[in-house]
Fold this protein.
Amino acid sequence: MSTLAKRLRSRRDRGRGSVEGRPVDRDLPRTEGRIRPGRKTKDLVKSLGPGDIAVIGHRNIDRIAAEDLAASGVGAVLNNEPSSDDRYPNRGPLILVEAGVRLVDFPDVDLFALVEDGQLVELAGPELRRDGIPLATGIEQLKPDLDRRIARQQEEIHLALAEFAENTVTHVRDESELLSGNIPLPDTTTDFRDRHVLIVVRGPDYKRDLRALRAYIRDVRPILVGVDGGADAIREAGYRPDMVLGDMDSATDATLKSGAELIVHAYSSGKAPGRQRLVDLGLEHTVLPSVGTSQDVAMLMAYEKGASLVVTVGAHFNLIEFLDKDRAGMSSTFLTRLRIGEVLVDAKGVSRLYSPGLSTGPLLLFLGAFLVLAVIVVLSSPALADLFDLIWLKLKIWLGV
């Protein structure tokens, strides 16, 4: 190679940069940050901060997880599982990407063994690097690809619906005690008799819907029941939950210690993995074994104990929401709603139904009444009348009339 050719090549390589002798394309999107790993996304988001790079193992990132990750301010999310496995139109990955968070899948790499909490890494395109050394190359989820994937999944949703409906029908007989009300409910200190009950579940728009019910909560003062992480939303809205029910893996320690009555939802066999957490915290609790989801058990408890109205916020009741939660059917929810339908009000989407605000009519009426009152006060006081005449005179001079 000639001397001139060597110089030209050297300049070209310097312009592109290099890592360990390898040329680097400076056009690749780059994100630097510290690794924050967590196998449970809903727990990890509580400790994430702006600029962090989250490492998760979340197959089919659901909408709630995506919104929580985006709200935490992370720069990127590295997923040890496929962010969408094409079974149904999963919008979670798209929500993340549209929020400006880079999402890269590493389905064939054990990221949790590869990186440690607090390590500074760089994401150059889909390649993960530490100290300039490549560790693994993933598959970056880009908006055009996600849009096409969701469009294709929408066309094939009938396949997922058919499988989901079949599983639901298959399990209806196994969970028929929900319809008969044949569930041994424990005694509770919370008295539901003839009271309204508001049950909050971590579901789509649950925080916004809860804010939209502020007037209802203020006027009616319903019993507030949080299903796991839904109890945190109640406290964030400025209230204290009367009861927390669930497997206790989502609610924060502060919420569990807030004075609410704690009901641990156990498997029908009696096994209650969440119980140990409350034992470690030294908190009194009651174990309730039952089939179905925690939201179903909360609704049934309120109904069976005499609630006059059961209002739910964030409760799951459609195909996408159940598949997001990795549930193959909805037999328990179907049976529960059949059982308590006469007192059930689902407030999902209430924030989109009506946004209270001050209309121009009442505002103009108020201003008119205020002006009339001001004129009466001025005319009834000679001193104020003279002052008003002086102000009016100065105003005419200023306007040139």
User: Anything to note?
Assistant: The first strand starts at residue 18 and ends at 19. The chain has 19 helices and 17 strands. Confidence is low (pLDDT under 50) at residues 1-23. Residues 226 and 244 are 5 Å apart (CA to CA).
